[in-house]
Structures are given as structure tokens and as C-alpha cells.
Amino acid sequence: VEERTELYKAERDRADRLNFMLLPRPVVKSLKETGLVEPELFEEVTIYFSDIVGFTTLCKYSTPMEVVDMLNDIYKNFDHILDHHDVYKVETIGDAYMVVSGLPKRNGNRHAVDISMMALDILSFMGSFELRHLPGLPVWIRIGIHSGPCAAGVVGIKMPRYCLFGDTVNTASRMESTGLPLRIHVNGSTINILKRTDCQFQYEERGETYLK
């Protein structure tokens, strides 16, 4: 009986570790205890989007397997960087990478600081990254950051996802798509939060730009 119990505990721990990689820890706990997760409104979070500049062109000179390996090499390293910051990886959509801070665990003004520090670390990593199948070819990314309110909750039963909704998500995505290569395009809402903290960042005004 003791041996069976130990095997059960080991299997349960493995399942928990896998669940914690797919969903935030409080969400997994709620699903286990009650079978549901109530959607929640968050007054202020910071959202990060990035994508690879010229991804379509890179794909043209790559086999399908090389494309998968390329994204896996890049995003595995991004995932390791996330471990050093209080952030949650929402998802990857093709070559786009989405991260949030400030939910499901609220963290004061830290969400803007952690996302900004994470973005700097990611940009630093990309400066030394080299494709295995196209060595010597630089890979550039665009980064967009925006802060504001959003709703979040679990969507679906099979392969459930913890999804974010609201204009803050859309604006963060637009900040990325209208940004410049190798730059972190930050909206004024995020900068206002950063200025309320002790962390010092250098900013450069880009001027007005059109956002849909």
C-alpha cells in the first residue's frame, strides 16, 4: 500500500507540474478544488507582444522543420528569461509571443517594471542569437508594451486556455505592430506607472503615430 501511495503521489506531482506550465497556479488550484474558474476583471496590468521581423521571408528560405526548430530555439530561451520575472506567458501565436504581468496575482506597480525588465533581457538575448540553419543572418524582433485594465478567464474544456480580453490587449498588439525593429515601443500608460516606481529607465519620444 505504501509503495502504491508513493507512486500515486509522484504521478500527481508530475501532473501538477505539467498543469502549472499550462495555466497559472491559482487557476489550477481553483480548477482542482471547485472545477471552475470565475472570470475576473483586473484594473491595471501590463501586456507585452513581440514578433519576428521578416518572418515570412525567413520561412521562404527554411524548410518546415527548420521553421519549427527556429521558433523553438528562440521561444525556449524567452521562456527561461521569464523565469526571472513576475510574469505569465499567455501564448505564442505563430511567431508572436504574448506575456502579461499583474494577473492573476496582482503585484502593485511591479507589473510595468517586470515586463520592461523582461523586454530588455529579451532584446539583449536577441543581439547574440544565431539561427542554426542560417548562421550569420541577424534575427530582429519588434516589441510593444501597453498597460491598462483587462478581463481574464479560462476558456474551453479540452486544452483550456487562460485568455485575456479587452482594449488593452488590442492596443498592446498595435504597439508591437507599429513599432520599429530592435526597439521597445512603450505606451504612455506604462511610462506613467514606471515613473511611480524607484526604477529608472531611459525613454526616447517617438512622436505621434497612427494606431487603428
TrEMBL record:
Single GO MF descriptor: adenylate cyclase activity
Cellular localisation: Cell membrane
Top-level taxon of origin: Eukaryota
GO CC term (a single one): plasma membrane
SUPFAM superfamilies: Nucleotide cyclase (SSF55073)
Chain ranges of the Guanylate cyclase domain: 46-176
GO biological process, one term: receptor guanylyl cyclase signaling pathway
Keywords: Cell membrane, Glycoprotein, GTP-binding, Lyase, Membrane, Nucleotide-binding, Receptor, Transmembrane, Transmembrane helix
Major location category of this protein: membrane
InterPro entries the UniProt entry points to: A/G_cyclase, A/G_cyclase_CS, Cyclic_nucleotide_synthase, Nucleotide_cyclase
Entry similarity comment: Belongs to the adenylyl cyclase class-4/guanylyl cyclase family.
Record-given protein name: GUC2C protein
Organism: Hypocryptadius cinnamomeus
Organismal lineage: Eukaryota, Metazoa, Chordata, Craniata, Vertebrata
